[in-house]
Amino acid sequence: MSDTTPIKTSDLEKSDVVNKTTGQKWVYSPIVKEHFFHPKNILLEEPAEGQFDARGTVGSPACGDVMDIWIKVDPTTERVVDLKWKTFGCGSAIAATSMFSVMVTENGGLTIEDAMKIKPQDIMERLGGLPNRKIHCSVLADKAFRKAVNNYFHAVGKHDRVEVEGARVVDKNLNITDKDIEEAVLEGAQTLDEVQKKLKVGVGDPEAIPEIEQLIRFYSEKYYG
After folding, report:
1. I want to staple 115 with a disulfide (CB 3.0 to 4.6 A). Which of 6, 38, 110, 187 is the partner?
2. Structural domain tally of the chain?
């Protein structure tokens, strides 16, 4: 499953993806392929008015993946009784979101509280694994879902239930935030050196390094377990 395993000649035919420059490879599990070729709960057309209670959209077509998620919630139990989605994204994003939609709606649907507890590692486990560099694909679904939930709470007047994620400046010289570090970790950087190669964070502000390292550990544990 790893995207860092050196390629072997005997593996070429078995590998789904091979980096022509480095020779690194990974093999997608049968479950990933099933959810990519036959995605569950996908919505290819705009829904009818009133069909869903809320919608969450994250990303931008100008810079990469876009994810749309629609949810229908039982107002009495707060179970997510329906979840549909569409994305402009890669195969891993499609497979991860398809699996996420199944996990949220199976067995009558999870409550909003329980659905919010689903972690990228949980999706990876159900899929049979994904390359580390693709973990951000499951995070994309999570963020769109959380935005949909926030929009639902606004719609039903439960404004105190809305979760707000604010960015906090970590390196004042470069105006780099904790969210910038989170994105760097999601892109595969898991050490201070690797994060600094991407962001230069802390280079001109050494006093910020302990907090930067703490954030790297936090996000690495959160997304990679």
Report:
1. 110
2. 2
Cβ neighbours for 136, distance < 8 A, ≥ 6 positions apart: 186, 187
Q: Are residues 132 and 185 part of one domain?
A: no
Task: Give the number of other Cβ atoms within 10 Å of residue 43's Cβ.
Answer: 16
What's the one-letter identity of residue 153? F
Q: Are 104 and 214 part of one and the same domain?
A: no
Domain extent at residue 192: 169-224
Cα angle value 207/210/213 (rounded, 5°)? 135
Higher pLDDT: 22 or 191? It is 191
Q: Of 157, 76, 83, 162, which is closest to residue 115 (Cα–Cα)?
A: 83
Dihedral angle sign, alpha carbons of residues 200, 203, 207, 210: positive
Nearest-angstrom CA–CA distance, 124 and 174: 34
Nearest residue to 134 via CA among 98, 101, 93:
93
C-alpha span between 23 and 4 (Å, rounded) = 9
Average pLDDT, the chain: 83
Which residues are known catalytic residues? 63, 137
Give Cα separations from 196 to 101, 185, 186, 203 (angstroms).
35, 11, 14, 7
Q: In this structure, which amino acid lies at residue 115?
A: A
**136 or 52: which carries more pLDDT confidence?**
52
